Amino acid sequence: MISKKLYYYAVMIFFISFTVKAEIMDRKHIATIYLNKLVYDPFFETTVLKITPNSIIKYPDYPEWICSQEELKATYCLNNREEAEYEGHHDFFDLVPTTFLSGSSFFDPRKHDGSGYKIAICFTEGHCNLWNFDSSDSEDKEVMIFEDKLFQILAGKSEYEFKPILANKTQ
Question: What residues make up the domain containing 93?
Fold first, then answer.
């Protein structure tokens, strides 16, 4: 009887050793967060937000450049929907939901003739977790707070003061 129990426990330990516990990354290992707009027609993807430890950059949805020549044979281009940057402290990395740290759950809405947003949370180790961006689907309070903060920035209604970024393009 004892040998049956030992055999049973040995087999159980053997099988348990093959199970993998999902690793939840630590927020301190986040390097960059990207918010990408996904458009079905025409089919494209563009980054609209890039969040690093010291800055938040807003990119235009559809760039339309207006350029002028300068004396030094450089062209300075100003987007009529300018890129803008906030430099300084922010709390975005602290707001990343625990769910988003545990892995990816991304469904590309363009596969079904839709548009939407994709969140990429990239870590110092080099990998990124991908998620859909639509808080209306979530009942998770952490997710709703995080995505609401992103919506505020996209709508220009955040507490962060963004300054235009002038693009310097040489010929």
Answer: 23-170
pLDDT in tens, 123-162: 999 999 998 877 556 688 998 899 899 989 888 888 888 8
The three-point CA angle 155-159-160 to 5° equals: 85
CA distance 78 to 167: 6
What's the number of domains the chain is made of? 1
Global pTM?
A: 0.70
CA 146/CA 162 separation, integer angstroms: 19
Count of CB atoms within 10 A of residue 53's CB? 12
Cβ neighbours for 25, distance < 8 A, ≥ 6 positions apart: 101, 102, 123, 129
Distances (CA, A) of 49 to 70, 73, 129, 136: 30, 31, 16, 20
The answer to whether residue 3 is domain-embedded is no
Nearest alpha carbon to residue 50 among 81, 24, 86, 76 = 86
CA 37 – CA 50 distance, rounded (Å): 12
- The tens digit of pLDDT for each residue in 13-33 reads 665 555 444 467 889 999 999
The residues, ordered by sequence, that sit 6+ positions from 35 with a Cβ below 8 Å of its Cβ are 47, 48, 49, 50, 51, 117, 118, 119, 120, 133, 150, 154
